[in-house]
């Protein structure tokens, strides 16, 4: 039995699953926490990976592995492979002004024109999450650090590079040293940088060095090689993975977290996944990306050579955490409270832009409560308003996909908050569609493992093959139960921020 490993290096933690390459059956798993914050020294990701691998029983018997990771983060390296400054993560909004400046610059002073040109060029209108805006911020705010940058990687690229044995000069955990030209990535994660066009060269994809230079003032930095969908970028160092197999473990291209979840769920064109995690994501697999100049939809690549259309909110499961804190309730009590209030919370509406927002692009907004009356000032109404507000933001994202003609045939609700009974009851009322709930799982890590099995199959066969046919089972399907009052109330106050 050949084994493969999938790694999910997310904002919050590192999770590793080891699975049977043929069937996808789980063999063992492990996890370790990441520190909080919107800027993090990547060394924490390496430490967490090693801890998670140890918790999973080690990776010495794994024939292939792949890393799914949080998208967009900026990992800047100097010529010796050292991290120039703490990585700025996707949820760090300090580069919001840089994003706006770049939009206007590409449009020669016309923002609307610039927004459409960015969407046409890379599939997305720039927001603070994208790597390219963080590079502009670095150039303008830390010029001494910017001057030392020799390479820029994404979080999953950097971790794959470290697993292969590369890293800072003189670091005993990096025996192969700082070979920056050995950095590699995949189309899905590269397509979220703002300087990669996944549809260039007939779909082969290409970096846009002109856009990189526009943002950073230089185009002489090393960017990771983009590996084909089931190719492999390096061998894991035998001290890390594959040591028992005599040749090391193949390292697959990896993926951005949303693309990793898509392949883990077996998503195909027509499928929609609504993920409620640290961020909220409405994702759709489509044959081609759109170019939405409004900025509501990001057009990325998935990791199977389809497009992955995304609407992303910064405020998702943390909205529920805020409700729990206010109400001094655990998740079960929160659900009980919310289900004790009527649909629409008797007019109490939360616009949950607690951390600013990405979709809609309101980086400086704050959360607001509307419609407060004596009869709705109860814990039950408050609990329900928080859940309804969070889900309404995601429903707006699905509407934006529909407006662009993206087909919607199946809707899946995933993420930790998807298991909350109140979320499950209220979601069909807001989305107005039947919703399938997959069995709980580590979808990103599972997707990375499935990609690793695909890489192993292609390597063994010597030619292109289809991904392994691992099954995804649904725990339940919730019938549509639309309650128009919820979204009508939300739409009336959403823009009053």
Give a quick set of tags describing it.
single chain, 497 residues, alpha+beta, Nucleotidyltransferase, domain 5, seven-stranded mixed sheet, five-stranded mixed sheet, 24 strands
Describe it.
It is a single chain. The chain is an alpha+beta fold and 497 residues long. It folds into two domains: 3-266, 2-Layer Sandwich (Nucleotidyltransferase, domain 5), CATH 3.30.420; 267-434 and 479-497, 2-Layer Sandwich (Nucleotidyltransferase, domain 5). Helix content is 34%, strand content 20%. It contains 16 helices and 24 strands. It has helices at 43-55, 96-106, 111-122, 131-141, 143-147, 155-163, 187-190, 200-203, 209-216, 257-264, 317-327, 331-339, 379-403, 421-431, 443-461, 484-493, and strands at 3-9, 13-20, 26-33, 39-40, 62-69, 75-77, 87-88, 151-153, 184-185, 196-197, 206-207, 225-226, 234-235, 250-251, 255-256, 271-276, 280-286, 298-301, 307-313, 349-351, 368-370, 410-414, 435-438, 474-478. Strands 1, 2, 3, 5, 13, 14 and 15 form a seven-stranded mixed β-sheet that branches. The chain has a five-stranded mixed β-sheet with strand order 18-19-17-16-22. A two-stranded antiparallel sheet has the order 4-7. Helix 2 packs across helix 3 (111-122) and helix 12 crosses helix 13 (379-403). It is globular. 56% of the residues are buried.
